[in-house]
Amino acid sequence: MANMTNSILSLPDSDQPDLLTSLAQEFKEAFEELSGHAQSELSGKHFVFSRYGKELYPYFESTDSDLAPGCIVPLKEGRPVASVDSTCVLVGETPKGALYAARTAVGLSFDGKLRRFFRLGPLLVYASPDGLEGIPSGSSSPEMQLLLSDHTVAERVIRNLVEERVIRAIMEEGEEVTVLSDGSLKHPMGAIHASSARNWRAGNTLVGFSKSSGLIFSERLVGALSKCETPSYYLVDGGPIDSVLAKFSPQGLVFRLDVPRRGVALERVLGSLLWNDAFSSGYPESLKVAHHLSIFSKADDQALKAFVMRRFGLRQVPAFPVRRIALGGFRGGA
Q: Which of 28, 43, 261, 278 has the fewest C-beta atoms lying within 10 Å of its C-beta?
């Protein structure tokens, strides 16, 4: 914990040192309280340190887990797998709002091979106090205030709106299909809401496929699945949405899947997915392709800005990174 006492020795005589000393004591007591709780919660636990926001996967050298995972048996029936992923980026700002660009992609697999892929976008969305223009949202006034104050939140909301619309279109029409969505179906800011399921075509299945999850850091669960020499799964949490850990290839990684209960047995969903998609390192090929097709390259970014400037007659304002100017350098950089 930072030592605030040493940092105030050079201040002029005033009431401020006493105030900061009192505040430092308050923080110290809070740390001691945390230490007591953390001792019981963290003592002896496996711990993965963050690496600047990167998604990490734990490596457990050995395990003596006595869990018995279930086998994923290929269901040899042709059933399309449609994987959906999307991206949203900030294009620029005005005094009253911000312009974003979203792109979504769909990868289609069938009988164990990637067959086709599609890409939609860029879709331009303008966020202002009046709401979102360019895509139906129904966002309330408080939600819009949050979107306008945080670009990260706005990008996620817009991305979810686009992705939800594509998934809904696939689930409501056409032949029976399994749709893969990147991420957990239980996330409070996820793209899919339970109310959407009412209009889905009977027989269609949605699966949330997560690269990162707290469940993946369970040595007991991941260790048991990693030892399996065949595709396997373990049901972690049942309910309206089943959460499972699954491994789809012998030497593949373990991932979290969320599967809503809609009259199709979990074993059939996993078996059909295994048969109809291809898995590299345990990750579905269709979802991998959808991810790569949805992202914006640097060339895409420049072309998009040039188009927007020409199409809307914008007057570009010169700008510079504010943090370096405002904060300067300190012991190697700000």
A: 43
